[in-house]
Amino acid sequence: EVEQDPPTYSIVAEGGAAGNDVVSEGQGYALLISGIVLASAEPNDPNRDSMIDIFYGYFNGWKKMAELSSINAGNCQSTKFCASGSIACLPGWKFPKELNGIIGSGSAPDGDVDAITGMVFGVQAVADDATKPVWFEEVRQWADASATQFMYHETVASSTGENRIVKLGSCWGGWDSNGNNPSYHSPGSYRIMRDYQANFSGR
Predict the structure, then answer these.
(1) Which of 40, 93, 122, 139 has its CA 20 to 30 A from that of 61?
(2) Residue 149 contacts by C-beta under 8 Å, 6 or more apart in sequence?
(3) Is residue 52 in some structural domain?
(4) 106-127 per-residue burial string, b: 16 or more CB within 10 A, e: under 16
(5) pLDDT, tens digit, for every residue of 1-19?
């Protein structure tokens, strides 16, 4: 837990090069899993309110990472789409566990696509609630804006404009010699993002 009001949670890596730090891949997993769990719950589940709060906490952690990244010149996102154009939606890839600075700038698409997909699950899970969570409209907007940010800064068109490839991140990769990482490709998530944006109202 980073903060209590609003609840802000981070996933701290336990080993490897990111040990004791937060990486966007781990935080993205947290958003994805908490969103899926919330979407899987029955409306009368006695633990649903807790699921709603946990999802919100991980979203706020992600948002804080994006805020920190947006004031860093190395984010490689020339256009900002979140929070009415004041925040670049996709955070850098590595942070201290307190989320009080940034260690690794430049976004990573594997964590980003998981986070966006998790936001979509979370929003859809509560969309029909008579009384929606306090975070509903904010996350609804962030999911849409983040999908746009992903397309603009983590994919790149071919020289003919007929094809598009996922980069290694906002700062690296594409059709050049840096190439791309096949493990970053997530066709199912791309379809979720496409359908969400196609049905989005109020943009």
Answers:
(1) 40
(2) 77, 79, 80, 81, 82, 88, 89, 90
(3) yes
(4) bbbbbbbbbbbbbbbbbbbbbe
(5) 788 889 999 999 987 777 8
Backbone angles phi, psi at 190, to 5 degrees: -65, -35
| pLDDT given at position 160 | 95
Dig out the tokens for 147 from the structure: 């999908």
Whether residue 128 lies inside any domain: the answer is yes
Provide CB contacts within 8 A for 97, sequence distance 6+: 10, 12, 20, 21, 22
Total structural domains within the chain: 1
Domain membership of residue 203 (yes or no) is: no
Domain hosting residue 128, numbered range: 3-198
pLDDT digits (tens, 9 = 90+) for 57-102: 999 999 999 999 999 878 999 999 999 999 999 999 999 999 999 9
We report the CATH number of the domain holding residue 115 as 1.50.10.10
Strands (E), 55-152: 94-96
pTM, to two decimals: 0.95
- Of residues 103, 200, 186, the one with CA closest to residue 142: 200
CB contact set of 102 (below 8 Å; sequence gap of 6+)? 65, 68, 69, 72, 92, 94, 95
Residue 126 lies in a domain: yes
If phi > 0 it is left, if psi is from -120 to 50 it is alpha, else beta; for residue 51 that is alpha
Task: Name the nearest CA neighbour of 118 among 171, 182, 176, 193.
Answer: 193
- The set of residues, in sequence order, having a beta carbon less than 8 Å from that of 201 and lying 6+ positions away, is none
